[in-house]
């Protein structure tokens, strides 16, 4: 009984330490993202994709603060996501969105503005944006927006991939940027900004691989796969394994996921089983449902 109580207390302290560490990283990521918006994109009439891009356009037309508009535009998405997925699903996203909003509005008051070459603004702004968002994503949070919208739309249109929804939304914002700013250059610079931001996330934070394979050795072989299926929507293969040294019976879990899902799955594993042995490796090419379809089978 005492051992169980001590184990729970130790787990609670570990969870609090993880949360504090994550919060610090969220702050750093939000600060970098604010630099990309306040210093590069907004002053040069460049609208990033998604909700941030829409908030930037609203700021241009009506002089409303970008950070506050990001938060306001996300509120309906938070409510809809809460009804469909529950609070646990969006809790970290809400925190991430609030931090991004606060840092952007605060940074607008004192950060220097670059208004030189717009191409340089798009390049450096996109790279810094990707690094900032990558740090946030790597610690299990997001800045809301198109990620939530895409998941909500996928419930209505399950045959269309999440990535397709996000891409369509971002392209729509880029086209709108060209209309609002009154020139096609803004749309093109916005496309450069978004492309470099996406690539920065992939290469600088998650690595060059488009997908990653995770191998998890755990004694909680029943609980973890269910959570991955319900919260992430990824399939899991289970294999019985035996420790050569201890002789203990465990389960080997195998799953393949996109870069933005890696941190979430790792969080689930470590929350359920802090002692789980996790291996992450690059998956050069993945064929099957939810990934690339083999053209030979079409």
Largest sheet: 4 strands, antiparallel
- Assembly category: single chain
The gyration radius over C-alpha positions equals 21 Å
Task: Choose one word for the global shape.
Answer: elongated
Number of helices: 10
Number of domains: 2
Strand content: 5-15%
- Binned, the helix content reads 55-70%
Average pLDDT rating:
84
Poorly predicted tracts of residues: 294-298
Distance between the termini: 59 Å
Per DSSP E runs of 2 or more residues, the count of β-strands stands at 4
> SS-based structural class?
alpha+beta
Q: In which order are the strands of the major sheet placed?
A: 2-3-1-4
Write the H/E string, N to C: HHHHHHHHEHEEHE
Summarize the structure.
With about 300 residues, this protein is an alpha+beta fold. The chain has two domains: about 1-205, no CATH class; about 210-290, Alpha-Beta Plaits (2-Layer Sandwich), CATH 3.30.70.
What would you note in describing this structure?
The protein has 298 residues and is of the alpha+beta class. The protein is built from 10 helices and 4 strands. Strands 2-3-1-4 form a 4-stranded antiparallel β-sheet. Strand 2 and strand 3 form a beta hairpin. The longest helix is centred in the N-terminal third of the chain and has 40 residues, at 2-41.
Write the layout of secondary structure elements.
Blueprint: H1 2-41, H2 50-62, H3 66-85, H4 87-110, H5 118-138, H6 146-156, H7 162-181, H8 184-205, E1 211-218, H9 223-232, E2 237-242, E3 249-257, H10 259-272, E4 277-283
Helix pairs in contact: 1-4, 1-5, 2-3, 2-7, 3-4, 3-6, 5-8, 6-7, 7-8, 9-10
């Amino acid at each position: 009984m005492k051992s169980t109580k001590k184990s729970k207390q130790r787990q609670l302290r570990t969870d609090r330490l993880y949360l504090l560490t994550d919060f610090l990283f969220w702050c750093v990521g939000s600060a970098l993202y604010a630099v990309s918006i306040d210093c590069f994109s907004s002053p040069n009439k460049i609208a990033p994709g998604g909700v941030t891009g829409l908030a930037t356009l609203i700021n241009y037309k009506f002089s409303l603060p970008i950070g506050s508009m990001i938060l306001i535009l996300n509120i309906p998405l938070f409510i809809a996501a809460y009804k469909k997925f529950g609070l646990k699903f969006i809790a970290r996203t809400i925190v991430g969105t609030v931090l991004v909003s606060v840092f952007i509005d605060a940074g607008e008051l004192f950060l220097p503005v670059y208004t030189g070459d717009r191409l340089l603004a798009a390049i450096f702004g996109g790279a810094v944006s990707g690094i900032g968002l990558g740090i946030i994503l790597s610690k299990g949070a997001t800045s809301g927006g198109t990620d939530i919208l895409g998941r909500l739309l996928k419930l209505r249109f399950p045959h269309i991939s999440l990535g397709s929804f996000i891409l369509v939304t971002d392209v729509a914002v880029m086209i709108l940027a060209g209309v609002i700013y009154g020139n096609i250059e803004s749309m093109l610079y916005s496309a450069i900004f978004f492309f470099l931001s996406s690539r920065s996330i992939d290469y600088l934070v998650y690595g060059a691989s488009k997908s990653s394979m995770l191998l998890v050795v755990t004694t909680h072989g029943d609980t973890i796969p269910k959570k991955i299926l319900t919260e992430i929507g990824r399939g899991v293969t289970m294999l019985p394994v035996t420790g050569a040294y201890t002789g203990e019976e465990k389960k080997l879990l195998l799953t393949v996921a996109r870069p933005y899902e890696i941190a979430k799955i790792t969080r689930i594993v470590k929350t359920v089983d802090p002692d789980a042995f996790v291996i992450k490796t690059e998956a050069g090419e993945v064929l099957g449902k939810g990934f690339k379809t083999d053209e030979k089978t079409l």
